[in-house]
Amino acid sequence: MAVGSMAEGTAADSSGAGPADRAGLAARAAEQQDTVLLTPEHDAEAPVLSIVVPALNEQLTIEDFIDWCHEGLRGVNVPGEILIVDSSTDRTAELALARGARVLRTPKRGLGRAYQDALPFIRGKYVLMGDCDCTYDFRELAPFVEKFEAGAEFVMGSRFRGYIEPGSMPPLHRYLGTPVTTWILNVIFSSRFSDIHCGMRGLTRDAFMRMQLRSQSWEYASEMVLKSVHMQLRTEEVPIRFLKDREGRLSHHKRSGWFSPWFAAWINLRAMFVYGANFFLFKPGLLLLALGLLLTLPLTLGDVTVGPITFSLLWMTFGVSLAILGLQSIYMGVLTQVFFDYSGVATERWFRRFPYTRTVVVAWLLMLLGAIASGWLALTYVSQGLRLRDGAAVNHVGVLGLLLLITGFMTFTFTLVLHSTRVAIRRQE
Fold this sequence. Notes:
Blueprint: E1 2-5, H1 6-13, H2 19-31, E2 36-39, E3 49-55, H3 62-76, E4 80-86, H4 92-98, E5 102-105, H5 111-118, E6 126-129, H6 142-149, E7 154-164, H7 171-189, E8 201-204, H8 205-211, H9 220-230, E9 235-242, H10 252-256, H11 260-275, H12 282-296, E10 304-306, E11 309-311, H13 313-339, H14 345-353, H15 356-383, H16 393-424
Parallel strand pairs: 3-4, 3-6, 4-5, 7-9
Antiparallel strand pairs: 1-2, 2-5, 6-8, 7-8, 10-11
Helix pairs in contact: 7-11, 9-11, 12-13, 13-16, 15-16
């Protein structure tokens, strides 16, 4: 058995990495000196598939789980390693090491953080994740390996397209929690996942590196799915077997209390909404802007009567409010597209449509026209003894001027923020 610090493991495992990889690994090494890698006596050499699984007091199942992994690796005839990220206080690490797994000892910092800690030590080209409680059947690895070898970058397991053993999933999770949150994610991102909370999933090490996971807890699962969509990874889904807990073992949710699954659902929804903010912004903003302009522009010179309805200055003011809200949503939506643009395509598109000099000139012209129109209204208001004359065209022109003034200012500030992203956002190549 060999024992090494994180820095030593990083240097040994990243010899083939590029400059960006080495820089990222060095940064993690500096932050995480409190992790220790334990290697078994007969360590795997040149693994292609890395099975990476966090463990917290799983001595009841860890030996069987590692045996399952070895059986699965033999079945696909692919060199592989088993890396257990362990924060246990029982004999989990000792038993895993004796069974031939690598063990990365880390403090208890959350499920998502465990995968981040493991990244510098992963040697395989492909990474397969899951739980070591023997609820996911790691004896059946062929579907994942086949998808990887066919070019997939992200492979999700699906319990709903595979087999769910009776008693393995609480009814609340099976019929409400997972289907509803999966449906929400699919609606927001126009995706077609069937089981976003399935813990058995895989991705290439390169995609894992570029994904730069930030979540520390349960929401890492949603962050991974969401980023796979933003990164436009080639994604596949495979059916898997989901088995019930061994007798005498409690799931981590049950250990944490009745509120744990509800909290996990909330933080997963939070991740969906944050990463999917554009769903609530860009297209709804276009609709609001169009409706606002439809109510505003025809009333520029005065009231308009259509049948029994007279569209007055109040309608015009309502239209201006909708237009401003819509434009604000559109601009925020554009910024979110840039923030989550891993390919660079959306960023270049918006920079072409909003070149700095031309857009700033247009913005200032809008503000000038708006100032003239609203200034005319202000002068008329003062000259008439601080009163507005009912039905006068100047009232409508003045309201349109306010819209132009606000639109110009919003466009100017949006352009500044958009172009500042070139300075503020640094993406690894």
